[in-house]
Amino acid sequence: xxxxxxxxxxxxxxxxxxxxxxxxxxxxxxxxxxxxxxxxxxxxxxxxxxxxxxxxxxxxxxxxxxxxxxxxxxxxxxxxxxxxxxxxxxxxxxxxxxxxxxxxxxxxxxxxxxxxxxxxxxxxxxxxxxxxxxxxxxxxxxxxxxxxxxxxxxxxxxxxxxxxxxxxxxxxxxxxxxxxxxxxxxxxxxxxxxxxxxxxxxxxxxxxxxxxxxxxxxxxxxxxxxxxxxxxxxxxxxxxxxxxxxxxxxxxxxxxxxxxxxxxxxxxxxxxxxxxxxxxxxxxxxxxxxxxxxxxxxxxxxxxxxxxxxxxxxxxxxxxxxxxxxxxxxxxxxxxxxxxxxxxxxxxxxxx
Amino acid sequence: xxxxxxxxxxxxxxxxxxxxxxxxxxxxxxxxxxxxxxxxxxxxxxxxxxxxxxxxxxxxxxxxxxxxxxxxxxxxxxxxxxxxxxxxxxxxxxxxxxxxxxxxxxxxxxxxxxxxxxxxxxxxxxxxxxxxxxxxxxxxxxxxxxxxxxxxxxxxxxxxxxxxxxxxxxxxxxxxxxxxxxxxxxxxxxxxxxxxxxxxxxxxxxxxxxxxxxxxxxxxxxxxxxxxxxxxxxxxxxxxxxxxxxxxxxxxxxxxxxxxxxxxxxxxxxxxxxxxxxxxxxxxxxxxxxxxxxxxxxxxxxxxxxxxxxxxxxxxxxxxxxxxxxxxxxxxxxxxxxxxxxxxxxxxxxxx
Lengths: 352, 352
Fold this sequence. Notes:
Radius of gyration of chain A: 22 Å
CATH architecture of the largest domain in chain A: Alpha-Beta Barrel
Oligomer: homodimer
Mean pLDDT of chain A: 95
Number of domains of chain A: 2
Number of strands of chain A: 16
Distance between the termini of chain A: 25 Å
Largest sheet of chain A: 9 strands, mixed
CATH topology of the largest domain in chain A: TIM Barrel
Helix content of chain A: 25-40%
Number of helices of chain A: 9
Structural class of chain A: alpha/beta
Largest interface: A-B, 56 and 56 residues
Order of helices and strands of chain A: EHHEHEHEHEHEHEEHEEEEEEHEE
Strand content of chain A: 15-25%
């Protein structure tokens, strides 16, 4: 199944640049060594990539689904898994804890989720606190009462989490700094009432801003996407979709074989990066229609480059706008260096 | 794995209403009996559903990927598969034709795709003609020449196809009628030059409009989505995503466990249909945040209904805006009648 050369891969194919991935893993490990970083696996859903994150020093993981926790535990990465989400169907987690010796902590934000953790045999929880994103989390001033309720049911309360998800993607860094401070003031207020060791928060866009949390739940930094690339972070774009031009038109467009089933589309169209200067017109289920442009190179001392129009059979490279729902469509990712396929990793945490 | 009651299903789950599906299959079979309808499996990617379409009289199928052709052939549904897309990696198809006794016809629109069909051992082709959608298909006036080239390479040219994809979703039926006529004039002009038995086109939005094509490639009609539901077609919404409310807020929103990895988002947000009157605010990777409204019933003689606010543990039903990229995220669909789960079908044509 592993083609050993990039150009032998069947398309569409998820391709990870080995150097860029290594750079991203090194960069975050330097900034947030060991347990200061709790990588969120929802971004890549790949236990082989999680193993790389563990090898970089992070053996604590964040996940969003029970399936992700199951696969992490099965891959020997179950030292300390935080399911940073509310779940009611906790029996599967309890089974994992019993059978696999995985340590799993689940987020709770209501009496119902506390009761589910207790009933499902998940003995450790964090209190999920709403810090401004209209999603999960209890109001900050109710966190202490919920922690008391959890403890009264015999649960261990490890601390608090509160995700500033409405802040991590803001373009203006000063705004991210200001709003993260506001969010974390709420989380720390709750932490006073809750106690416990963990103050868990943050994402790729606030990994070096959120100094209030004592662990950061970033995920996208490993592979990146065009949405995060806008923010000027020190992470490189590691992920592209490799596709094949299957049709061209004398009227100026070309069509390649990656479409709506190869890209999460909630952040808009993906970007064709090779050939450079291509403009995406639209995507259909299995197609991307784009116009290949020509653009001057900006490297001093070189001539403006023009790109010949795409030909049937050409390979193109496309960067997703949103990494998480893109990867969830694919079965595997290929780690490449230049034209060599070094490894092929199953995306084994897909589904629920 | 098969829970037998709807409320036992782990969420998020794709749920198909058995009655609505049967209605849709009967409706199209009455309008387009037997080979007048060539169901497009890209919409559902499920061989068990394709078997239902075959049982309704349609044993010819349309697909968009090699994987779809492989799974159809393996499921005994390979009588006459049209891969209505350009492919260069034709060896897999040739292997299928040799090993499985599947009959597979592939679309070609260029000398390169003709050469690929010949080299890959795919002896039958249709000439794909561009009828206005900027995607695949040769210009109508070049179709005859391409057919000659295919025949000179020993290929059997079965006819033409040309998809009016820019027309099928238009809200105004009169506009769909007018534009379909224009598109099919181009296709029939090409057919004169190409010859062969097949004039293949159409979709759910033109299934009863496109009387020029002699077979219709509709797919969405079986399960439907909110985009097609706007058009006032006689097909019922058969597909919902079942989700569980995992968090609520005193400020008026609730959160359920279906997000960006459960819905194709290119047509916008999905619609919460139960509870009625709910307004979707936004989706995150594994969450939908919505406000539950109350709305007056429009049924004469009944009292306006008000809906209590959602509670943690409630189940909600959500209709996707675009069926095809929604299903591609899921592993299985559950066919239900009321609260009974009748069957669970693997979505076995996912991937490429």
